[in-house]
C-alpha cells in the first residue's frame, strides 16, 4: 500500500523547497539501482525459501521434476509445521511497550504515552502487520512493516497514528550502507509498487509515460509492457538548526522562540547560550522512472517509518546476510519427499510385478497386458503354442523384495528436519521417548531456546517501532482532544490531552497532559499476554484455595477474579464484600468500613458466668476476713475480762477507731459522747 502524500496529507509538512526536482530524481535513480543490486540476490533466495515452506508444489526443483517425469512426486511438508510452531508461539507472547519519563518528562504522562502506544499496538490491523512480517522473517529471514498517519475522520483535522502491513517485504529496500540492525541509520529507503499502465494513467493523468518500444536497459526496471513501477522514496537530509539554552534550563530551537521573545523577557527568562547543530529531517516523495510524481514532503518524525524484522542476520566480509529457519531444512525436506515418494511407488508396484510372455503368445492382446495397472480384466487372453513350455502361457514374475531401508531413510530425514529447525516432537505436542512431565517440559524448552533468537529479533524491531510511535506522538497528538488509551490489563479509557485550564491560585493558564513537552524513553517487555497471566494466576489460586486458613478464602476470591466468563461480576462483588466484612480485604475507595463484629452470645454468657463466679469468690473472701477479725475482737474482749493483756489487733477495714464493729454489734449514737465501748479492753479510751 502506498502512502498518501498530498501536501495536506497527515504526517507531512509543506513541500521541500530549494532543491531541483531534476537533481533529486537523478539522485533517486542512482540510489534505487544501488539498493536493488545489493539486495536482489538475497531477496530471490529468501522468496524461494518462503515459497518452499508455505506454498504447494514448491519443494521439487526443476531438475528432480524432469528426472521423475511420469513417476510419483509427493510432498509431505514437515517444515511448515515447525515454522508455524515458532510463529504461533509469538502470537501468544506479544512484546509490550514500557515508557519511562526522561529529561523534563512526567511519570503520569509516561503512563498516557504508554497507553497511546498500547492502543495503537492492540489494533487488529497493527497486530496483523507484525504477524505478517514475523512469518516472513521466520520463513525467509526478512519481513517489514510501516508506520503511517491518517485523519481520524472526514470532518476534522485530528490525526491518528497507525501501523500498516506490508504484504510483500521484498518490495522494500534499505540503504546498503546502513549497518544497524533496525536500519535507523539508513539515509534512504524505497517501497516499490507495480501499477497497470491504465491504472497509472488514471492516478497520475499528467505523468510522463515511456512507451514500451523506447525502454532501454537503464530503465527496464521501471517500465514494463503492461506494468509501471512506482516507488515511494524516503530519504534524510541533514540541516543546520540553531538551538538556545534559556536561563530556566530549558533548550529550544531559536526559530521557535522568535514569536514569544517578549513574553520570555517579561518573565525574566533570557537566552544563556547558543549553538548550531546538524539534524536530520525526513522527506518522502512518489517517483516513477521518468519524474517525481508527488512531493517531496517533510515527514513529522525523525525516523524513516519502515521497520525491518530479521530472522537470522550475520555479517560476512562486511556484507549482511540473512536467512530464516527454512534455509537449512530444505535439503532434509527434499530427501524426505523423495524417500516417501519412492516408498509409495515401490509399495504400489508390489502387486503388479511384470508378466513374462512370448511375443507371439500375446500378439493382438498387448493392450490388455499394458492396462493391468489401471484396469482389472476378468480374463487375460493369449495364444497357445504347443512348442513352448506350458503352451506359451504368460507367467508373472515374483515381485522384488520390499526395501525396508526406504522407511529407515525417511525416518532419518525426518529427524534431520527436526535438527535443522530445532523443533522436536515434544514441541509439536507429539509423544516422544520422554515420559515424565518434567522431561517433556525440558524438551519443549529446548525447542523454545533453539529458536528464541527469532523472538528476540522481533523484540528489537518492536523497540524501534515503539520509538517511532513515541516520537510521532508529540507531533501528531498536538491539539486538545480526547484519546483512547489501553492499560496493562487491556482495559480501555479515554483521557483529555493538551487541555488548557486556568490555575485558580496563580491565575495562569496551564496545559494538562501536554504531550508536546518532555523526553521519554521506550523499552520492550517480553512475556505472556495479560490474558495468559490471568489464566496462570487462576490456576495458582485454585491450588491455594484448598488451604483452610484465611489465605485459602482470599485465594478463592483471586480465582474467581481471574476467571473470564459471563455473568461472574455479581459473584466477584459478593465474594469481595464478604472478605471485606471479615476484615481480610481492604474496603474500596469511598466504601464504608465494615462495622465491628457482633459478639457471640455463647461467649457473652460464658463471660458473664465467669464474672459472677469471680464476684462471689471475692465476696466470700471478704466475708471470711470480717469473720476472722470479729473472732479476734471477741477473743480480746474475753481476755480483757480475765485481766489478761491481749496483743494489739487492727480494727476491721473501714471501721472508725471509736466505732464498735458492726455485723451483730450495736452502733453508738452519733451524738453520744465518745467513751469506752462496752466490753472494751482495759486501758483503752
From TrEMBL:
Residues 649-660 have a biased composition (Pro residues). InterPro entries: P22_portal. Residues 661-674 have a biased composition (Low complexity). Residues 1-20, 585-611, 644-685 are annotated as: Disordered. This is Portal protein. It comes from Pseudoxanthomonas suwonensis (strain 11-1). The lineage of its organism: Bacteria, Pseudomonadati, Pseudomonadota, Gammaproteobacteria, Lysobacterales.
Amino acid at each position: 500500500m502506498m502512502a498518501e502524500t498530498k501536501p495536506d496529507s497527515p504526517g507531512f509538512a509543506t513541500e521541500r523547497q530549494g532543491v531541483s526536482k531534476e537533481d533529486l530524481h537523478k539522485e533517486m535513480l542512482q540510489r534505487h539501482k544501488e539498493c536493488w543490486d545489493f539486495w536482489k540476490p538475497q531477496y530471490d533466495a529468501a522468496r524461494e525459501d518462503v515459497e518452499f515452506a508455505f506454498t504447494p508444489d514448491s519443494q521439487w526443483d526443476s531438475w528432480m521434476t524432469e528426472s521423475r517425469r511420469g513417476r510419483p512426486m509427493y510432498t509431505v511438508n514437515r517444515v511448515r509445521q515447525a515454522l508455524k510452531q515458532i510463529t504461533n508461539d509469538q502470537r501468544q507472547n506479544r512484546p509490550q511497550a514500557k515508557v519511562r519519563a526522561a529529561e523534563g518528562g512526567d511519570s503520569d504522562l509516561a503512563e498516557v504515552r504508554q497507553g497511546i502506544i498500547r492502543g495503537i499496538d492492540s489494533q487488529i490491523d497493527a497486530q496483523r502487520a507484525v504477524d505478517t512480517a514475523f512469518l516472513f522473517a521466520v520463513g525467509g529471514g526478512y519481513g517489514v512493516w510501516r508506520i503511517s498517519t491518517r485523519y481520524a475522520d472526514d470532518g476534522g483535522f485530528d490525526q491518528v497514528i497507525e501501523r500498516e502491513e506490508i504484504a510483500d517485504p521484498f518490495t522494500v529496500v534499505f540503504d546498503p550502507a546502513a549497518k544497524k540492525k533496525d536500519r535507523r541509520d539508513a539515509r534512504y529507503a524505497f517501497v516499490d509498487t507495480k501499477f497497470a499502465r491504465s491504472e497509472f494513467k488514471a492516478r497520475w493523468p499528467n505523468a510522463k509515460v515511456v512507451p514500451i518500444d523506447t525502454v532501454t536497459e537503464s530503465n527496464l526496471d521501471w517500465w514494463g509492457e503492461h506494468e509501471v513501477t512506482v516507488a515511494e522514496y524516503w530519504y534524510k537530509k541533514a540541516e543546520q538548526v540553531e538551538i538556545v539554552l534559556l536561563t530556566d534550563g530549558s533548550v529550544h530551537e531559536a526559530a521557535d522562540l522568535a514569536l514569544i521573545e517578549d513574553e520570555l523577557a517579561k518573565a525574566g527568562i533570557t537566552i544563556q547560550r547558543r549553538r548550531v547543530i546538524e539534524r536530520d529531517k525526513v522527506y518522502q516523495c512518489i517517483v516513477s522512472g521518468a519524474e517525481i510524481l508527488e512531493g517531496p514532503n517533510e515527514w513529522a518524525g525523525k525516523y524513516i517509518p519502515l521497520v525491518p524484522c530479521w530472522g537470522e542476520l550475520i555479517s560476512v566480509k562486511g556484507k549482511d546476510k540473512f536467512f530464516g529457519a527454512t534455509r537449512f531444512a530444505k535439503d532434509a525436506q527434499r530427501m524426505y519427499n523423495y524417500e516417501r515418494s519412492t516408498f509409495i511407488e515401490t509399495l504400489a508396484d508390489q502387486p503388479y510385478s511384470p508378466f513374462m510372455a512370448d511375443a507371439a503368445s500375446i500378439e493382438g492382446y498387448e493392450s490388455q497386458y499394458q492396462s493391468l495397472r489401471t484396469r482389472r480384466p476378468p480374463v487375460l487372453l493369449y495364444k497357445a503354442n504347443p512348442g513352448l513350455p506350458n503352451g506359451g502361457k504368460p507367467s508373472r514374475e515374483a515381485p522384488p523384495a520390499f526395501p525396508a531401508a526406504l522407511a529407515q531413510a525417511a525416518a532419518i530425514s525426518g529427524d534431520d528436519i527436526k535438527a535443522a529447525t530445532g523443533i522436536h516432537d515434544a514441541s509439536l505436542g507429539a509423544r516422544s521417548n520422554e515420559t515424565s512431565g518434567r522431561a517433556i517440559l525440558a524438551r519443549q524448552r529446548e525447542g523454545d531456546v533453539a529458536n528464541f533468537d527469532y523472538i528476540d529479533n522481533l523484540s528489537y524491531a518492536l523497540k524501534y517501532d515503539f520509538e517511532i510511535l513515541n516520537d510521532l506522538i508529540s507531533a501528531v497528538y498536538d491539539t486538545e482532544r480526547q484519546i483512547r488509551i489501553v492499560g496493562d490489563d487491556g482495559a480501555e479509557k479515554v483521557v483529555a490531552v493538551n487541555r488548557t485550564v486556568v490555575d485558580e491560585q496563580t491565575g495562569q493558564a496551564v496545559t494538562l497532559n501536554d504531550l508536546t513537552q518532555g523526553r521519554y524513553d521506550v523499552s520492550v517487555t517480553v512475556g505472556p499476554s495479560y490474558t495468559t497471566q490471568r489464566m496462570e494466576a487462576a490456576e495458582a489460586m485454585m491450588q491455594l484455595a484448598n488451604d483452610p486458613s484465611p489465605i485459602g478464602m482470599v485465594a478463592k476470591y483471586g480465582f474467581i477474579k481471574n476467571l473470564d466468563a459471563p455473568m461472574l461480576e455479581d459473584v466477584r462483588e459478593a465474594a469481595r464484600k464478604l472478605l471485606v466484612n471479615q476484615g481480610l480485604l481492604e474496603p474500596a475507595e469511598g466504601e464504608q468500613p465494615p462495622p465491628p463484629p457482633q459478639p457471640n452470645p455463647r461467649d457473652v454468657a460464658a463471660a458473664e458466668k465467669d464474672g459472677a463466679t469471680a464476684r462471689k469468690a471475692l465476696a466470700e473472701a471478704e466475708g471470711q476476713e470480717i469473720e476472722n477479725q470479729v473472732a479476734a475482737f471477741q477473743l480480746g474482749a474475753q481476755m480483757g475480762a480475765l485481766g489478761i493483756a491481749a496483743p494489739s489487733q487492727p480494727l476491721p477495714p473501714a471501721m472508725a477507731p471509736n466505732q464498735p464493729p458492726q455485723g451483730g454489734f450495736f452502733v453508738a449514737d452519733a451524738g453520744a459522747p465518745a467513751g469506752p465501748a462496752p466490753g472494751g479492753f482495759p486501758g483503752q479510751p
